[in-house]
Automatic annotation (TrEMBL):
Superkingdom to which the source organism belongs: Bacteria
Protein name: DUF4440 domain-containing protein
Lineage: Bacteria, Bacillati, Actinomycetota, Actinomycetes, Pseudonocardiales
Domain DUF4440 intervals: 10-117
One Pfam family matching this protein: DUF4440
Amino acid sequence: MTDDVACQVIKAERDRIRCLLDVDRDTYDRLHAPEYRLCNPTGTVWTKDEYLDLLTTGRVAYRELGLIGDVDTIVGTDVVVLRYRCVIELTVDGADIPKHEAWHTDVYTDTGGTWRCAWSQATGIMDLPPAAP
């Protein structure tokens, strides 16, 4: 049962990523809980409506957004937590953000048989300078 739920939510996450790339409003609404919040790498928190507005106006435009490797899961009765690395390339308010990797943590809740993302946190992975000799 736990593996089935994990697979179901991972599929929902892949669909959610696709809807962000395609700016698919119907899928966005279906896969994001009303209380959805995204904490982006700058520490800014956007609500579901704010994020959708940024996407539909083009103020946030993903050119690439994809999972890298496996998705780690913690499965509870009505909550599933996903963690994975991804590659991102986007434009924010006209500024190009170059391709980079990030960690994503997403919390899904079961809303009457439908898994919807309630919280997302993205943390950029920085290239550290070489260690001093």
